[in-house]
Amino acid sequence: MPVKLSDLAIGKAAILDGFAISQLHKKMLSMGVSPGQSISVVRRLPLKGNLYVKINGRALAFRHEEATQILVRV
């Protein structure tokens, strides 16, 4: 069952399932991020701040609004 990346606990590993909006999908594909890759939350800033994640060993940061549009499978 897919959950939002913004709801994933720190340190928990998941599989990237998809994106809720097509603009974000295009942006992620241009960065080499696609469904099926492993993802984990490394750090979360307070008050709905940025999420720092690792995707296949690469470090990326997402705004909270973006993280709510990224779906993962636990």
Task: Give your account of this protein's structure.
It is a single chain. The chain is α+β, with helices and mostly antiparallel strands. The protein has one domain: SH3 type barrels (Roll). The protein is built from 2 helices and 6 strands. It has a 6-stranded antiparallel beta sheet. Strand 3 and strand 4 form a beta hairpin. The longest helix has 9 residues. It is globular, with a radius of gyration of 11 Å.
Q: What gross morphology would you assign?
A: globular
Mean pLDDT: 90
Biggest sheet, strands in spatial order? 1-6-2-3-4-5
Instruction: List unreliable stretches of 5+ residues.
Output: none
Order of helices and strands: EEHEEEHE
For the terminal residues, how far apart are their CA atoms? Answer: 8 Å
> What is the CATH topology assignment?
SH3 type barrels
Summary?
With 74 residues, this protein is of the alpha+beta class.
Write the layout of secondary structure elements.
Elements lengths: L1 E3 L8 E7 L2 H9 L7 E7 L6 E5 L2 E5 L1 H4 L2 E4 L1
Antiparallel strand pairs: 1-6, 2-3, 2-6, 3-4, 4-5
